[in-house]
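Continuing the batch. This is chain 6 of the set; chains 1 through 5 are on the previous pages. Same settings as before, nothing changed between runs. Recording input and output for traceability.
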Amino acid sequence: MPTEAGYRYFVQHLSSDSELPLDERRMIRHQFHQARHDVEQWLRLAASVLARTVQGASLVTPPHAGTNRLQHLELIHTQGRLVLMVLVLRGGDVRQEMLTLAEPVPQEALSQAAERINDVATGLTAHEIHTKAAQLPLLEREVAEVAADVIARADHLPTRHVYYHGLTEMLAAFKEESVGALQAVRLLEEHTFLDGILSEALGPNIGGVRVVIAGEGRWEELSHCSMVLSRYGVSDQATGALGVLGPVRMRYGRAVSTVRYVAGLMSDLLLDVYGEVNSETGPRNE
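Output for chain 6:
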């Protein structure tokens, strides 16, 4: 059996040009296009495709904006001085906050205030909105400052959900390696631990595949596991991560080619959703 150094040599020198067969790529692409513009269905499908193709465990995190920007704000009168603020962020996240105003304000005035805030704050970060708020009238200023605080909190939220698939196949792949199986299960269950590894291993940039073999001497908690990871999404808007997890002796060539293809396909589909490409252009991957 190859050593860890041997696996690293193989990954670095022999698997860089590996590619999924054309018929598999066409089948995967067709499955995603059947899901239309349902991002959640794409996430579930990506986890399923990765696990089935590699015969191991897969993980996919939803696209998330590292620095959120305001897309739209609404103010809805409820009763008395209570007002519901609804924030739509770039990338589709929705946040709600109940406000208590100094005095009751009719819905028409609230709608006008929301419109003025949207005029000056759409597309801005929390810090930028705080700066702009100082120039607004009292009501709009107070609302804009609360909105900025909500967006700032969203910037620091950990991964709320991870889609994964193939746990049974992964445990079977470990066979008698109980330590490795336990390490893999812990990684999938502890999102804070997973967030830290993804942030350090992948960074913010989209594209490329990162292979982590036996923890690379940096993560003792992965000393009996290997991961093949990639970041997908739309730069400066929203990105997520996906990959496969298994024993050190996994089939790296197939894992790398599958992760690379699915990540590229997800990025292309999200580009279409965010209006960055014409919907008739289609994905770059053939």
